[in-house]
Amino acid sequence: GENVEQHPSTLSVQEGDSAVIKCTYSDSASNYFPWYKQELGKRPQLIIDIRSNVGEKKDQRIAVTLNKTAKHFSLHITETQPEDSAVYFCAATLYNFNKFYFGSGTKLNVKP
Amino acid sequence: NAGVMQNPRHLVRRRGQEARLRCSPMKGHSHVYWYRQLPEEGLKFMVYLQKENIIDESGMPKERFSAEFPKEGPSILRIQQVVRGDSAAYFCASSPPSGVTDTQYFGPGTRLTVL
User: Fold this and answer.
1) What pairs with residue B89 in β-bridges?
2) Going edge to edge, which strands form the sheet with B75-79?
3) How many other C-beta atoms lie within 10 A of the C-beta of residue A54?
4) How far does the CA of residue B80 sit from the closest CA of chain A (Å)?
5) What is the DSSP annotation of chain A?
6) Among A7, A23, A95, A98, which would you mutate to test the B interface (most chain B Cβ atoms within 10 Å of its Cβ)?
7) Which residues, 6+ apart, have CB-to-CB distance to B6 below 8 Å?
8) Which residues of chain B have a CB within 8 Å of the CB of A105?
9) pLDDT above 90 covers what percent of chain B?
10) What distance in Å separates the CA atoms of residue B15 and residue A110, rounded to the nearest whole number?
11) Hey, are the CB atoms on B91 and A93 less than 8 Å from each other?
């Protein structure tokens, strides 16, 4: 099956700086890659996703890049704010298979 | 438009008892997934169901765990004879029928504590 690895496990940045979280996957057939944000004690919430026919997608301060050849994808958060502090999970799945393989999570701490 | 609903939000059981966790998917969603999250860890896939069918249960322990999604009513994850190692947050997610979108939407989770 698919194996998703996520780095770093913790990330601490100063407010206003950028944060980058990286994930690699093992199954070259995976073609859908969502990112979820989970605040303490809350549900995971989708923040951005990308399909394999696209190399980059941006939504305001959040962007995701995908390198299919290298089988890795990254989350970029610019101008970080304290409310960005949370655990972020990447995932990979095969279209229509619907079984998500999650990374182990990155705990992001944005210091005011 | 109500999101994915789960109940109870917190459940305390003694070792050997049964735990029943319920999940009502978003309106219009016919696919349900269950995930387990241990403290400080990621989400682990357990089972994927459609109405009256288990599609993929490869992440479910072979014993004591079962899941169903009946024609009427919520999906239920059942854990028999719970042990302390079952203590975790159990999240349900739902998605529309295939071909509409791949996105899964998560419920608020049920936090199971086994004493």
Assistant:
1) B37, B111
2) B5-7, B19-24, B75-79, B65-68
3) 12
4) 25
5) ---EEEE-SEEEEETTS-EEEEEEES-TT--EEEEEEE-TTS--EEEEEEETT-SEEEETTEEEEEETTTTEEEEEE-S--GGG-EEEEEEEB-TTT---EE---EEEEEE-
6) A98
7) B21, B22, B23, B24, B91, B92, B107, B108, B109, B110
8) 41-42
9) 74
10) 40
11) no
pLDDT reported for residue A72: 95
Specify the residue for token string 């690895």.
Answer: A5
Tokens 């994808």 belong to residue: A73
Question: Which of A53, A100, A104, A106 to mutate against chain B (most B CBs within 10 Å)?
Answer: A100
Q: How many CB pairs under 8 A join A and B?
A: 57
DSSP state of B62: S
Per-residue pLDDT reduced to its tens digit, A60-107: 999 999 999 999 999 999 999 999 999 999 999 876 667 788 999 999
